[in-house]
Amino acid sequence: GRVKNVTDFGVFVDLGGLDGLLHITDLSWGRVTHPSEIVEMDELITVKVIDFDTEKQRVSLGLKQLQPHPWESVEAKYPVGSVVEGRVVSMTNYGAFVEIEKGVEGLIHVSEMSWIKHVRHPSEIFSLDQTVEAKILNVNVSERKISLGVKQLQPDPWDQIEDKYKVGAIQKGLVRNLTQFGAFVELEEGIDGLIHITDLSWTRNVRHPREILSKGDEVDVRVLDVSRENRRIALGLKQVAEDPWDQIEAYFTSGKQVKGDVIRVLDKGVILQMEMDIEGIIPQGRIQA
Prior knowledge:
- It is built from 3 helices and 18 strands.
- The chain has helices at residues 74-77, 161-164, 245-251, and strands spanning 2-6, 10-14, 19-23, 48-53, 58-62, 83-92, 95-101, 104-109, 131-140, 145-149, 170-179, 182-188, 191-196, 218-227, 232-236, 261-266, 269-273, 279-283.
- One of its GO terms (molecular function) is mRNA binding.
């Protein structure tokens, strides 16, 4: 038949005295924004009759039905582990949809976009109509879903983390964030370790990491523990220096008179800053009036 009219919702085709509607969803197995992407006015096309309503004299036509459904051969064409190329056709908060071929799309979830970066939205990595390569992670023919990943095209830096950051080694890092329980230190792009608040100082009672560190500080830290499975690195700041408590105990012998500056007054007593960067307490019951 010949294309008689093109509308937003489909194409009217003159079949020779009888018009048929080729709906936009029956033009292609792939995404179609407007029928003009597929056909032109007065174009002579071959279509398939997919429905005929004798009462309303309506003929429904299909163009895509002249070709096999692309999902019939998806498992054979796209085995798990293979690398495919496609075009980004849509993005949501949770991922990017990639058209691998007309009618076959896969989803790159935000968690499969980078080994080292916390991606909050696909637009941080991709743009619409961008051509990308991705690895097939899973194929579900019954639900017509394909899971894709781009980070899998690169080695996972955490696979070699235990060899690169040996327990006991001293590393340089940059303080990226401070929380109530510790400081996060970037050892390399995307690889952070945590200095727990208890590992900041041998001698001070640290109430918040900001008493010792600031964002942007470059620090030397000692690797205390590495877990590839949990993707965690425990770091110590105080462990870069030797534990001074043997010397402290030898210096501050019982009965020795010492001086200190009052730094805090609490209900339970008075806190003093003393020599060797340590704090002492005069309990409330021992404070002379």
